[in-house]
Amino acid sequence: MIPGPTEVAPDILRGMSSPVPAHYMDEWLQLYKDTLRMLRDLLQSENDMFIMTGSGSVSLEGAICSLVEPGDKVLADEAFADYARLCGANVVDVTPPVGETLNPALIQDALRKEKDVKIVAILHNVTWTAVTHRIDLIGEIVEKEGAIFVIDAVSSIGGIEIKTDKWHVDVVASASQKALAVPPGIAPVAVGKRAWEKIENRREPIRSMYLNFLNYRKPPIDPSWTWHPTPNTPATTLIRALSQSLNKMHEEGFQNVFKRHEVTGRAVREGFKAAGLRLLVKDEKWASNTVTAVLWPEGYDYTRFWRTLYDRYSLMIGNPPEQTFHPIEGRRYFRVGHMGNTASPKYVLPALGRIEAALKDVGYPVKPGEMVKAAQEVFLSG
Fold it and tell me: Contact at 8 Å (CB) between 217 and 42?
């Protein structure tokens, strides 16, 4: 129950064990194009799609490397700021305080104050703090101010609705290993017309081959996509797994998938609140539907709690004791992922039961069954 990689369904794993497909010619070309079509449907977009080989970071860095030129002014949060600086950008950091959503008015004010901002690059769903940003409102603002809008959708794609075209998102950078419920190693990308115009009209060439979006749009080996639709050898077994996973999501209905994640997110949060535990998110309106972050109560042994879950109850959650990033006022917090296949009562209810037991083991005053009961009530009503 970590925030990725998530549990992969047995049928997807079986499909990955079949013979490795070739990465070109008719059968592969059809599967690749069908996979991109389903991704467009998922993202509600007519934009160009392609799949990079690598973790989600390859899609984020590829977006910045392809768009940003030295001297460009870029509004970026913690997901994109370092990439932009490496590409020579003048970065205006708009990272909000931990646990808070990014205020669209802040983006509007920054765009008007800074002037000549080329790109706004932000997270959609903050995996490490379990907060979702209002990219619908931000996208409208960015487009009106004439900048390119790039989002990190790594922990939202497939779990939280993204209306790419309606929300004026120019680039969606994502990954396979979270709500898409596929092993890590591939990164779907969507690129719109305005982003392509910026990329094609650069003053300087893109300083990369592997990260160069132009090579994915028109692979040097086959620019017209007649037999070899990628610029390099892709992770064919993972793309086939993604195709299978998207087919299952399509059968369920994408809106039903989003609803399942929304109900699951509420169930998990209500479960923790029933035990008197505090969420990290400051305003629950902006709580993530794919991951929940919980402040650890002071005076109790966090290491013992985490290791009890892991060693005794075979449950893995986020933020092991060795992890030290993002301390909140000197306090620890932990995360529970509920995305893809784990966005379900059959995963969440047993997990909460084991968390109750581990809390009891460290002396925290939780009543047996109260977390599970609160979550179950949400599932039954939702």
Answer: no
pLDDT in tens, 281-327: 999 999 999 999 999 999 999 999 999 999 999 999 999 998 765 55
* 10-251 CATH, one of 3.40.50.920, 3.40.50.720, 3.50.50.60, 3.40.640.10: 3.40.640.10
Closest alpha carbon to 126 in 347, 351, 281: 281
pTM above 0.90, yes or no: yes
Query: Which pLDDT score, from 0 to 100, does residue 35 have?
Result: 98
Amino acid at 328: I
Burial of 330 (0-12, 13-18, 19+ CB in 10 A): exposed
Pick the CATH number of 253-381 from 3.90.25.10, 2.40.50.90, 3.20.20.140, 3.90.1150.10: 3.90.1150.10
Q: Is 291 helix (H, G, I), strand (E, B) or coil?
A: strand
